[in-house]
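Chain and conformation:
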Amino acid sequence: MSRTACIERVSGETAIKVTLTIDGSGQTQVSTGIGFFDHMLTLLGKHGLFDLVAEAKGDLAVDGHHTVEDMGIVLGQALAKALGDKTGIKRYGTAFVPMDEALAMVSLDVSGRPYLVFEAVLPSERVGQFDSELTEEFFRAMSIHAGLTLHVRLLSGKNTHHIIEAIFKAFGRALDEATRQDDRIKGVMSTKGIL
């Protein structure tokens, strides 16, 4: 069974289409109009071994907020749909990723209970045309719409580009671990019988 989903969302602020294949090979095609954000989504797909096609047209003349947040919403919805009832997945994933002086930790639970803890100081307000504070907004939207308990923690780092890149890579790797299927798991990884 293919764990793939395609979601489209159109509002007065953005038009977004995402196709996500969980059991992919890291092939990505991303276009949001924000170069650094495209780079981060590409890294997420590559390091998570997800095939990802993501296109966004947003009100970038205002700023990048709606585009980044709405991409988190749509990507989160696509992940939730592709996972279905979560049968057989490992559920938990944790990754530590270094990027030069930066070291990020992401730990998550595909629990169905959205919760974000984001502990990272981002020294620069912008990286290219990307507002650094939108990093947290993206992960909040992902957490809510994919149903993730998500902890993001920066352990060291001074360069904002390196910090954000380490976070996105760690998220991809942790999500890959959590969404892997294990033949030993019967049903879902919960004594309640549902996630």
